[in-house]
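HUMAN: I'm a chemist; might I ask for a sequence paired with its structure tokens?

ASSISTANT:
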Amino acid sequence: MSNKGKHWNFCFAYSFAARVVSAIEIPTEEEYLIDFIDPGSTEFLRKISLPQKDTLLHDLIRNLNYSDWEWIVDHGGDDVSNELHQLVVGAEISVPDWLQQGRIGKHLSEAYELVERAAGSIAEATFHLLFADRSFLINFQRILSTHVSTMRAEDYPAIMEKDGVIKRPPSLPNWLRNAVFHRDKGRCQLCFRDLTGLITPQYEREIQLDHMVPLNLSGTNDPTNFQLVCQSCNTRKKDKYLVEKPFTFPYW
């Protein structure tokens, strides 16, 4: 087995993912949502300028779900012990002795720390689920672009090409290229031709990564903004917003 393989418990990851999707797909409180990413932070600037393995989506998953569980601990009283117990087990964290009915109230600070650890532990599995859904990722990037569009080059000269436009990175890391290639099943996501080189070897040389929300439309260099395309589609798309519905093959 590859030393990069991981075993994940997806039990709570599904509920975490559903919570994040509902926040993105029903954008009634975009300013509220962006608070969980903090566009004024150094970390935000670093992640929109160069691809990082710990993405902005990771931040949203951790912070949004921690906030939800913090509220549950605050308002649930001692009755929250069963829910919190399930969360801790789902995150594969050792259950502390005090996590039982009638004792939570005396261990609130420890409960908050436990929730933060659990949210962080489940975030990677949740990201794995959400990264597979390009429709969700596009909506996520649209929200980010509304904030990038307000950024001025004179305020952020190190990362901005011009007002509202982030600089293009000099190169993209191999880990990102491999991740997007496998997620998109080796097919151009605009014309769906095979780029694996197994069926049509001549297309293997055409593999390119495209910003789903173009940089000139205030897109970011976060890994969640890339899709696999062929050279001809990338040339045709240029700086337009062009994304096709997800394409896959049924199991049977």
